[in-house]
Amino acid sequence: xxxxxxxxxxxxxxxxxxxxxxxxxxxxxxxxxxxxxxxxxxxxxxxxxxxxxxxxxxxxxxxxxxxxxxxxxxxxxxxxxxxxxxxxxxxxxxxxxxxxxxxxxxxxxxxxxxxxxxxxxxxxxxxxxxxxxxxxxxxxxxxxxxxxxxxxxxxxxxxxxxxxxxxxxxxxxxxxxxxxxxxxxxxxxxxxxxxxxxxxxxxxxxxxxxxxxxxxxxxxxxxxxxxxxxxxxxxxxxxxxxxxxxxx
Length: 248
Hints:
Elements: H1 11-34, H2 44-67, H3 78-97, H4 100-117, H5 120-134, H6 142-158, H7 160-163, H8 168-171, H9 175-197, H10 200-218, H11 228-242
Helix pairs in contact: 1-2, 1-3, 1-4, 2-3, 2-9, 2-10, 3-4, 3-5, 3-9, 4-9, 5-6, 5-9, 6-9, 6-10, 9-10
């Protein structure tokens, strides 16, 4: 489905479409982005371009790892995970093709996911599912990916109190950081689990993808929730910018 149809839809429908068709949308965007990769030479420009293409490719690999898992295996986290993953599918599509409609959908999907993430049972279920998928520390090069996921899960617990029980309308101001983090934890853990169970022929590629994915998405500060003061300051900044002479 074309992403042009999504932004005007109700939140439940936007989330349902990204959940059902988001992987295909993202794969199409990344395929288009990577279509000329075989023409790249060894120049500095080509290496820089190829690196970004590889980053988008591992985004697809991580989503595929998540989709390879039986939906029923996610238990109590199934509902909240679907909403969080839908956000990342839209966000990664924006990175791949600059889709303005997918960008608008990100705001809808953020608020949709926060309706659940601000409830203790859903927040904890998503974090527990990530921990469950991550499993015990592996050996070899995969350990680096495992460690980044484990560290990010630990950091998540330090700001849990800022989100659980908070007003979704207020924390939506910075809500994407939590929705993104939770989805990346789930997919990174799924990719680590897939890599650990892979055959010798597939293991190296998957381990490389797991390390890169965790490095790209999880080496950041713990997600902090916005406060009413922050929301007001943001409004003041926007108002000042739109008022001629208000900003030096």
